[in-house]
Design brief:
Layout lengths: L10 H14 L6 E7 L7 H20 L1 H11 L9 H22 L3 H6 L3 H19 L9 E7 L4 E6 L1 H4 L8 H12 L3 H19 L14 E3 L1
Parallel strand pairs: 1-2, 1-4
Antiparallel strand pairs: 2-3
Length: 229
């Protein structure tokens, strides 16, 4: 299933980020790639996991309190009592559990709720996995000096990743990119994702210029433009 494109990034945002990348690369041999996506994963397994948990709890409750639920069924049927056979009770039980499972899956088709019920660790892993796959395709080992670096922002998960190629990673510890991440997320939370990406790029440029100053021969090997997926 294709991930839906975001609508938060305007033409002005694209121009702002492109200009920020071009400016940062004026002072470094590093090559910055920026990618923004609406959603890193659809988390299709999450509704099934929650539905199974709800169905199990329902089954355990029905088995533990059969007389209570039989009373509810009789009440809905006008109060007429009925002695259910084992087969009939089992059929009612399985039907109720199946309806719980299907109902939960249906409710969790609503993506905001699905994301809210997705554990933070899973979202972090899925965003990082998506960022890593894009990094391998678009930045890793794509420059002569192995100085490519990816800034990846996933809007609906409210997560971002910075992944650096071999030469950069050998000199710059991951925590050094903290200022860039803060600059990015502060602006995104304020509703200005384009400004956030541009601010992060500026911070990344400062670090790259310190460790990888621009040389005499430094072709522009990776695109400066913001990539939307």
């Amino acid at each position: 299933m294709a991930l839906r494109k975001i609508s938060q990034m305007s033409a002005a945002d694209h121009a702002l980020v492109t200009a920020a990348v071009a400016e940062a690369e004026q002072h470094t041999s590093g090559e910055i790639v920026t990618i923004v996506t609406d959603l890193s994963d659809h988390y299709d397994d999450i509704p099934m996991a929650w539905a199974s948990a709800v169905a199990f709890i329902a089954l355990a409750t029905y088995v533990t309190l059969p007389e209570f639920y039989i009373g509810l069924i009789n009440g809905l049927s006008g109060g007429w009592g009925h002695d259910y056979s084992t087969g009939e009770y089992l059929a009612l039980l399985l039907t109720a559990v199946a309806l719980k499972w299907i109902g939960t899956c249906f409710i969790l088709k609503w993506m905001p709720l699905r994301l809210a019920l997705t554990p933070k660790a899973i979202k972090l892993a899925r965003v990082r996995g998506r960022a890593m796959s894009l990094f391998k395709v678009g930045a890793e080992s794509k420059t002569m000096g192995r100085t490519g670096i990816l800034l990846y922002l996933s809007m609906k998960e409210h997560r971002a990743e910075i992944l650096a190629d071999e030469a950069i990673a050998s000199k710059v510890a991951p925590e050094i990119w903290g200022d860039a991440m803060i600059a990015l997320l502060d602006q995104v939370k304020a509703g200005h994702p384009g400004a956030g990406v541009a601010a992060a790029v500026a911070q990344m440029g400062v670090v790259l210029a310190e460790h990888f100053p621009k040389g005499t021969e430094n072709p522009n090997e990776l695109p400066d433009r913001l990539i939307e997926l």
